[in-house]
Sequence to fold (348 residues):
Amino acid sequence: MRFRSILLASVMLLATGCDYDSSGYPSGPGTVYPPAPTRLWAEGLWTVSGVPGEINRLDASQLLTTGTLIPATRLSTPSASLFTLNSIAFDNQGVMWVASEEDSVLLGFIAGNEGATGSVTPAITINPIAGSIAAPTGIAFDTDGSLWMANIGNGTIVRFDKSQLARSGTPIPTVTITGVPHPSGLAFDASGTLWVTDLRANTVSRYLRGQLLTSGDKEPAIVLSSNANSLVNPSGIAFDSFNNMWIANNGNESVVEFRPPERASSGSPAPALTLRPTQAPLGGPVGIAFDAEGSIWIAGAQGVLSKFTAASIAASGPDEPVLQVKLQNNVLLWSIAFFPKPVGFPLN
Fold:
């Protein structure tokens, strides 16, 4: 994958056969059911560092001032290398899901007695079957609790129902959609429609709710393309509490905002806002998440986390982040998620 090779170079310089039940889920010997969660994950900002290949958490105190620091939590797993572009998200039950692009595997972690540093074994491991998981670079949950995955390896968007995520195995996705050649990031807007970035084609596409019900090769209802480099290797995507869409452009060190009027139809609209700091570069922006206060956090592939408050992004321009955190010896970030999940935002 050419883009991945370029990203890696820049950063490094700094199933067995089984039977299936009626729902398409594996059954029989070897099926594992996870225990009910007995505790919650520690609060904070969670991400995955492709190098050295670990799950990281920054606690609330580490998100208050600029500086270089060691994550409060550093977890590895024997179930995946976690190398390259990893996605992370929490479901409504508090399970932490990590999709490893390098390993083509989906892992579900339940909080237990792990310490701040060490190895953790997932309670649920979803392995690929017939291309169901192929170099995933984005995951997002819908209102039904189903997990949607962007497979950049084979150009598919797939849905695993909530019931298929209850135990380990190789479930067949209930929906498989093609139509975006290189799906990269996923997010649902306030109306429940799905938006997908394509970091190679430099587009952002929208699928209506009805298009998400069945499998097939489907043309997106809306496709936004670049306007004067407004979309250059777009990767991370998220919606704020006003249903504005934010896109991280890894290719030109910017984050852009598209409000509902600008994305009402296909075309090449100019963004409503563009964030492109000049004094504190974003370090290759790739992931986006909003905290409970509505501040936007941007993950840079080079191990940088940048914060912009709602007030600081009131106008477009070379606004600088209100603070910037650098993870010590942790690089190749891709996505970020807060736990507990902030309320009042569309699903991301």
